[in-house]
Amino acid sequence: MAKHQSFHELFQREEELKHGSDRSFCFVFAGIFAIAFASSAYHHHDRAPLWLAVSAILAGIGLLRPTLASPLNRLWARIGLLLHHITNPVILTLLYVVAIVPIGLILQCVRKRKTPPTSSYWVLRKPPGPAPQSMSDQF
């Protein structure tokens, strides 16, 4: 991409991607897999022991050697950044189309009904303002 880009966001990063700690990454995903285990066990699915094993392994890694999860943590951060670059423009466009444009159109319709059509919207000031000669050195 050219040095002078027209985007408001930098897509090429010179600094290292910052992410959460490896230990918290392990504990969060251990919790997610524990929830998957509970749901599978409640519904009597065959995969419940698998979810429990994955949850226990991640919790053990988080407690004993959290640096083992560092590659997965970095990968997860990159996936999150990619999803951000995809979903952010889509969500903002939908917000604009669904919320802002209709409100603007409704306000224009309401404003046209309330105000009678005139040849000019210039409002005469009574009494008149300062003399035009006093505006010579405004800045």
Question: Any overview of this molecule?
Answer:
This protein is an all-alpha fold. It contains three helices and no strands. Helix 1 packs antiparallel against helix 2 (48-64). The protein is elongated, with a radius of gyration of 30 Å.
Structural class: mainly alpha
Main sheet characteristics? none
Mean pLDDT: 86
Number of E-state strands: 0
Low-confidence stretches: none
Note the total helix count. Answer: 3
Radius of gyration: 30 Å
Sequence-ordered SSE layout with sheet pairings:
Elements: H1 22-42, H2 48-64, H3 70-114
Structure, briefly:
The protein has 139 residues and is mainly alpha-helical.
Main attributes of the structure:
single chain; 139 residues; 60% helix
